[in-house]
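Worked Example 4.2. Consider the chain below.
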Amino acid sequence: MKFAIIGCEHVHIEIFIQEMIELGHELIGIHEREGAELAMSLANKYETSIVRDRDDLLARADIIGSSAVNSGKIDLIELCEAHGKPIMIDKPAVTSRRDLGRLQSVIERGAIEVGMLLTERFHSPVYTLKRLIDQGKLGDLVTIGMRKPHRLNPSVRPPWFFSKEQCGGIIIDLLIHDYDLLRWLTGREVIRSLGNMTKRILPEYPEFYDTASVQVLMEGGITAQLYADWYTPAQSWTWGDGRIFVTGTEGFAELRLSGDPFASKEAMVLVTTNASGPAQAAIEAPPTSITEDFLQRLASQPSVIAGRDIVLATEASIEADEQAEIIRMEEAKQW
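Applying the procedure from the previous section yields the following structure tokens:
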């Protein structure tokens, strides 16, 4: 098949490009209105052209990929629907409840398939954790904790990244992955979320919050703690020391997604149960990539991620964002 990229604002879209090419499909062009540096870099790397005529590219492609500005993705999704072209986007799909309704309508109409790069389901240590849970090694799930620190590098971020309307903010932009994993790992739905967003830095961007902490209640009484920040130090061995902690009635697992700088920089899955002492689980690779999974959905074959999963994870992140208590440290000094 022929595929094209329309909107190229984030490097995440290279995951889709690389996997499509590895599967034998042809990248026929990249469209980015501003002719951004990223678009030029990817065009050079994958030996394709920057195409100024978006409609021509849309007409010639079988599948569209996009990492457009977050708030603009829904317009492109609806455009692809009008042309009958499936689309794979990076996260998040939308940044507001209003646009969530538009996304849900596209999914429900079913004229096209919409994919989103919820890549953590296809990350080998997370897939290994899912297998452990499904095999009953941890017993019944009790609680899950996820930590998602990130390196900010504000000087290289585009202005739209710091806009709540355009980007979505720390909960919608980052915790969308966590809400998807909560639903996938537990097989349960989110009941409610309570949390806060805190601002300590970059007063020139008044809508940008740098820390988020959320408590989640799932069906079946499973609880979760989600945390994200933009404070990974410049000297860290990784862009973000992501961790997942899972407690069940029969055991405990910890995922060190970037390894441990004093042991190994490879991801680690550490497991302790009532039946066996601490051990490092053998990491299993998922049977497909996220792009293969999307193509299976296009072929009406069983897939790991469905359109409904995208809608429900997005809805959960938007609800968490809406209810979050805002803490601004310049105001907190009066406490």
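The longest helix spans residues 307-323. The mean pLDDT is 96. Compare this with Example 4.1 before moving on.
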